[in-house]
Amino acid sequence: MTSKDIINKTKKYVANTYSRFNIAIENGKGSLCYDFEGNEYIDFTSGIGVNSLGFCEQSWVDAVSFQSSILNHTSNLYYSAPGAELAEKLCTKTGYDKVFFANSGAEANECAIKLARKRSFLKYGENRYKIITLQNSFHGRTVTTLSATGQDSFHKYFSPFTEGFEYVPANDIRALEKAIDKSVCAFMCELIQGEGGVIPLDLDYVKKAEQLCRKNDLTFIVDEVQTGIGRTGALLASEQFGVFPDITTIAKGLGGGLPIGACLMKDTCSNVLEPKDHATTFGMNPVVCAGANVVMDAMTDEFLNEVKEKSKLICKTLESLDNIKSVDGLGLMLGLSLKNKKAIDVACECNDNGLLILTAKEKLRLLPPLNISFDKLKKGLDILCEIISE
Ligand SMILES: *Cc1c(COP(=O)(O)O)cnc(C)c1O
User: Fold this and answer.
1) pLDDT tens, 267-308?
2) Cα gap 69→72, rounded to integer Å
3) Hey, is 318 helix, strand or coil?
4) Contacts of 94 (CB under 8 A, 6+ apart)
5) Are 104 and 122 in contact (CB under 8 A)?
6) In the annotation, is 44 catalytic?
7) Span from the CA of 112 to the centroid of ligand 1 (angstroms)
8) Atom of ligand 1 nearest to the CA of 259
9) Cβ(187)–Cβ(209) under 8 Å?
10) pTM recorded for the entire structure
C-alpha cells in the first residue's frame, strides 16, 4: 500500500471529523517514524502527548505483547494483576487514595464531575451541583465535558448541553470568589491550558483558588489529562504549582500509546462512588494497564530531571530567534508564538522537511516524546529553527 491509497481509503470510509496532515505513518521507533514510502520524520508530537516513551519502546512492547498473550480482558466483574499494580503505583507515587480507570480524558473528567456532584449531594442535598470552570479551557468532547469546556465555539449544534457549569476568566481570583454561591460544588481547571493555546495559569492564582475551594468546601478538580505523567517535568504538574487537588484526572501520556484515563481521588472523595454509580466495560483493561505500568516505572527523578533539561534546551534555542514572540509552557509541553508566520504554515513546512509538530490555536505546539534523545531533539530543532527564520 502507498500513502496515497491509505489517505484515499480514509477519506472515503472514515467520518470526516478531523483535518489531518497529509502523511500516513507506517511504523515508528523511539522519536522517529516512517511513511509508506520510507520517508523519515522526527516526532515532536508524541500522538498529542500520548506516546510518552516514543514509538514502540522495547520494554513497553514486551510488556504489552506478553500481557496480550496471557490475558486480554476480563471485565470488571473479576480481579486482574496489571490494573491492581497500576493503581498501587499511581496512588503511592502521587499521594492519592484511590483511582477509577476509564478509557480517555473525557471519561476521566466525566467521573470527576459525577464524583464531585455526588459528594456534594451526600453532604448538602440536591441544589448544590454547579461546577465552575475557566474560560478557554478544554475538558473533552462528550456532551457534559463540552459543557465543562469554557469556549463558545464548542457550544454549537448539540444543545441541550448538560446544565450546571459556569465559566470565569483565568487568573482572576475575584471573579472566582464572586461566582461561588450556595449552588456551587466544585472548581475545575487545567494548570496549563493545552488545547486553549499552551497557557499556564499563574502560580499564585492556583494556590488561592485551592484555598477558596477549601474555605467553601468545593471539590477542587485539576484536569491533568495533558499535563500529567511527566509531561511538565514532574509526575503531576500540580507538584510544580504547590497544590494537592481533591481530584486529578489523567489520560493521554499514561498508557504510552494505548487508550486509558484515570480519575485520582483524595481520601475526601474516595468513598463517594459505590457499585452501580459508575462503570465502564473497557476500564482497567489488562493489556492497557501493562503498558501504563511500564510508563509509570520510567518516571524516575532522573528521567523527570532530563525532561526539564530538554525543556531548557528548547527554550534557549528558540528564544534566541528573531521571529519568536514568546515560548510558553512547562517541561515538554511548549507553545511558540511567532511574529510573522502562521503556525499552521510552519507545521506543514516542517512536515515537508521531516519534522512532525502540532499547533494549538495561533501557536506552534511541541509535545515530543519524554525520552527523546538530546541528539534527535537538536536535529528537530535545527529543522524548526531554519523554517521559522526563513
Ligand atoms: C485531550 C484532553 C482532554 C480529552 O481527552 P480525550 O482522551 O480526547 O477524551 C481533556 N482535557 C484535557 C486537558 C485534554 O488535553
Assistant:
1) 999 999 999 999 999 999 999 999 999 999 999 999 999 999
2) 7
3) helix
4) 235, 236, 248, 264
5) no
6) no
7) 13
8) 7
9) yes
10) 0.98
Give the number of other Cβ atoms within 10 Å of residue 239's Cβ. Answer: 15
Dist. CA 321 → ligand 1 center (Å): 31
* Cα-to-centroid distance, 182 and ligand 1 (Å): 29
Q: Collect the ranges in the chain with pLDDT lower than 50.
A: none
Please confirm, yes or no, whether 98 is among the known catalytic residues. no
Q: How far is Cα 290 from Cα 51, in angstroms, rounded to an integer? A: 15
Rounded CA gap, 206 and 199, in Å? 13
SS3 111: helix
214-265 pLDDT, tens digit per residue, is 999 999 999 999 999 999 999 999 999 999 999 999 999 999 999 999 999 9
Pairing of strands 219-223, 192-193: unpaired
Q: Out of 44, 101, 138, 220, which one is annotated catalytic?
A: 138
Other Cβ atoms less than 10 A from the Cβ of 150: the count is 25
Going by C-alpha positions, the residue among 343, 351, 359 that lies closest to residue 380 is 351
Q: Which ligand 1 atom sits closest to the C-alpha of 261?
A: 7
What are the start-end ranges of the H helices in 180-283?
203-215, 237-241
3-state secondary structure (DSSP) of residue 131: strand
Q: How far apart are the first and last CA of the chain?
A: 35
Question: Cell 509552557 sits at which residue?
Answer: 329
CB atoms within 10 A of CB 12: 7
In this structure, what C-alpha cell is assigned to residue 223? 484536569
Q: Which residues contact 315 (CB under 8 A, 6 or more apart)?
A: 327, 334
Phi, psi angles (nearest 5°) of residue 47: 60, 45
Q: Strand (E) positions, 130-218?
A: 130-134, 165-168, 184-189, 192-193, 199-200
55: DSSP letter: B
The CA distance from 253 to 240, in Å, is 18
Q: Whose CA is nearest to atom 5 of ligand 1?
A: 105
